[in-house]
Amino acid sequence: MELKNYSSSTSGFILLGLSSNPQLQKPLFAIFLTMYLVTVVGNVLIILAIHSDSRLHTPMYFFLSNLSFMDICFTTVIVPKMLVNFLSDTKAISYVGCLVQMYFFMALANTDSYLLASMAIDRLVAICKPFHYDVVMNPRRCLLMLLCSCTISHLHSLFRVLLMSRLSFCASHIIKHFFCDTQPVLKLSCSDTSSSQIVVMTETLAVIVTPFLCIIFSYLRIIITVLRIPSAAGKWKAFSTCGSHLTVVVLFYGSVIYVYFRPLSMYSVVKDRVATVMYTVVTPMLNPFIYSLRNKDMKKGLKKLRDRIQS
């Protein structure tokens, strides 16, 4: 049988989704629609609360509002198409559509990681250099950190997608995933992907590990500084300002490391789907709860927003 090349712009892929069981499609649709709506509403409320309360116009909340915006965009790149596929018989996505989804998925995911690193730096300066905080974390520098986060992430994503666009896809065009992620798409390629994998792994390590190491370094410095505080109350107060951020970092990076920092030969369809759902859907949904429930300033901001809406 002649092998068909699916790398042209006229051909596409089939997204297998989370489950091929027809009886699970509608329940899954209801679950993920609810999670998506909670994600969008929760993160919009965080953004509105921050922008409506002048007490929250600080570097930490500047980065948090941008993280919330990125989380909305991040889930919107994946979930709406997944919802359509739950109720569709074809579950098709065009070749160009697949590359576009892959591009924005990687760009927004990486921007998330750099914003988390920026928030770690903010906590480092606030705890270790409190008297220099206003000078170091000035509005211009915060904006520059945001622009650098977006630029590096989009350049990385563009490079990855250009590499993917050079591959040929023969015979099977069924992606065993619920969106166009790099690993399951690479599995379909009939081209020699060994050189691409080396380049991708090296470049990915540089781009993704850099913010992760920045977070690790920041928290090591924070821990050393906090341990020098004589009173237990002072230590608790310092650590409490980092609790929400650290929780999000563990959720995000735990699943990302599990999915991406392994050779293609160790790729597992079922396990990776579950881990991917964690950081693409669950973590963005939980972020507003994590930052609001454990943060007195955010609680006050949300209460002020609620009073303003009701008045």
UniProtKB/TrEMBL annotation:
Its main location: membrane. GO terms for molecular function: G protein-coupled receptor activity. Keywords: G-protein coupled receptor, Membrane, Olfaction, Receptor, Sensory transduction, Transducer, Transmembrane, Transmembrane helix. This is Olfactory receptor 1L4. It comes from the Eukaryota. One of its GO terms (cellular component) is membrane. The chain crosses the membrane at residues 28-49, 61-80, 142-159, 205-227, 239-261, 273-293. The keyword Transmembrane applies. The keyword Chloroplast does not apply. Pfam families: 7tm_4. One of its GO terms (biological process) is sensory perception of smell. It comes from Daubentonia madagascariensis. It is a multi-pass membrane protein. Residues 42-291 form the G-protein coupled receptors family 1 profile domain. It is found in: Membrane. CDD domains: 7tmA_OR1A-like. InterPro entries: GPCR_Rhodpsn (IPR000276), GPCR_Rhodpsn_7TM (IPR017452), Olfact_rcpt (IPR000725). Signal peptide: none annotated.
